[in-house]
């Protein structure tokens, strides 16, 4: 009788160990899934392909926009410029990137000249349709042309308006929704740098 | 020494006041319009923006139905609308200016989109914009061109 109880207890111990191991394994899997690494591979104005890989070691602040956008895009680029100024020497560890969702038109009107007017550190990337689509999908954001008579050229872009922050390993850290003040973003970055 | 300090402090207090005073204000009927500003552009290829603050001091609602300016062939009222973090910019046929309220065309909301620019907007210059109101009629205001990096009116938009 006693022997049966002892065996039953040992079975219970084994079962609980298996249970704990399963839980740990499961948790590990979840953490791996949480390390989301969005990527881009897009040409700069000189035509050189720039990839997420090259910015390893830096925090990368990504915005999807287009230069024919009169409101949200210049407002966000002004915030980014303010952030880069306020970071002082720590700005060296942050790379702001503007990915054009209207690349053909932006290449034509000169993306670098436009971005440099806000801050010389902002890197502008404008690919072809497939490269742009790949970046948009990898970041799980939204960008679509909308036909309208009330915009130049007969179309405008609807686009995700947040700033996306990637860590030094290319891992997704967070997004800053449109309207987050430059001060708040600078404070958040300073804590990480 | 004390004199200079007092003079310096006086100047420090006066300068922002002067900067504030620079902001043009126009009144017509029940409406006062102020803090009209835009951002400098690079060339004329891209549309410019128009922001302004409109205060309705009366007891009847009014509506802003359109804008006209010599600097752009196609000025239009637009609204930035956020849906789940996605921005789109539909044409606003009219903007309500309710009685007793202040409405701002400001970053992230209503704005004038100045398309087909006739000239580059240069920092420090200004240009007139005529606002058409349903009741108050047409009101023209001088619009300051601020640096491309400007985030708000130089004179502060809130009353």
From TrEMBL, chain A:
One Pfam family in the UniProt entry: SCO1-SenC
Family annotation (PROSITE patterns): THIOREDOXIN_2
Record flagged with keyword Transmembrane helix: yes
Keyword Membrane attributed: yes
Ranges that cross the membrane: 7-25
Domain of life of the native organism: Bacteria
Thioredoxin domain ranges (all copies): 31-193
Keywords (A to Z) from UniProt: Copper, Membrane, Transmembrane, Transmembrane helix
Family: Belongs to the SCO1/2 family.
Protein name, entry field: Thioredoxin domain-containing protein
Organism this protein belongs to: Paracoccus acridae
From TrEMBL, chain B:
Gene3D superfamilies to which the protein is assigned, alphabetical: PCu(A)C copper chaperone
Keyword Cytoplasm assigned: no
Keyword line: Signal
InterPro entries assigned to the protein according to its UniProt record, in alphabetical order: LpqE-like, Lxx211020-like, PCuAC_sf
Extent of the signal sequence: 1-21
This protein's record includes keyword Glycoprotein: no
Protein name as it appears in the record: Copper chaperone PCu(A)C
Organism, scientific name: Paracoccus acridae
């Amino acid at each position: 009788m006693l022997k049966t109880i002892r065996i039953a207890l040992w079975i219970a111990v084994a079962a609980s160990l298996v249970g704990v191991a399963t839980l740990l394994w499961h948790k590990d899997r979840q953490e791996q899934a949480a390390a989301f690494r969005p990527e881009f591979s897009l040409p700069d104005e000189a035509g050189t392909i720039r990839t997420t890989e090259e910015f390893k070691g830096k925090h990368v602040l990504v915005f999807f926009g287009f230069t024919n956008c009169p409101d949200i895009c210049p407002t966000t680029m002004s915030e980014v410029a303010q952030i880069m100024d306020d970071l002082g020497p720590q700005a060296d560890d942050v790379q702001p990137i503007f990915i054009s969702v209207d690349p053909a038109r932006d290449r034509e009107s000169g993306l670098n000249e436009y971005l440099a007017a806000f801050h010389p550190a902002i890197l502008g990337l404008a690919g072809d349709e497939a490269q742009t689509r790949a970046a948009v999908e990898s970041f799980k954001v939204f960008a679509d042309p909308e036909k309208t008579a009330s915009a130049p050229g007969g179309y405008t872009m609807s686009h995700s308006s947040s700033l996306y922050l990637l860590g030094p390993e290319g891992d997704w850290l967070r997004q800053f929704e449109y309207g987050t003040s430059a001060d708040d973003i600078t404070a958040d970055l300073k804590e990480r740098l | 020494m004390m004199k200079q300090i007092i003079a310096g402090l006086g100047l420090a207090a006066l300068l922002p006041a002067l900067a504030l005073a620079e902001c043009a204000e126009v009144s017509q009927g029940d409406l006062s319009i102020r803090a009209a500003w835009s951002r400098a552009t690079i060339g004329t290829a891209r549309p410019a923006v128009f922001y302004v603050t409109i205060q309705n001091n009366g007891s009847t609602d009014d509506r802003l139905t359109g804008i006209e300016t010599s600097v752009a062939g196609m000025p239009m009222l637009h609204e930035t609308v956020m849906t789940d973090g996605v921005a789109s910019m539909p044409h606003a046929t009219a903007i309500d200016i309710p009685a007793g309220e202040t409405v701002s065309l400001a970053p992230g909301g209503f704005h004038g989109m100045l398309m087909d620019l006739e000239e580059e907007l240069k920092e420090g210059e200004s240009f007139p914009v005529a606002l058409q109101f349903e009741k108050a009629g047409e009101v023209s205001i001088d619009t300051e061109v601020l640096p491309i990096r400007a985030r708000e009116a130089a004179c502060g938009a809130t009353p």
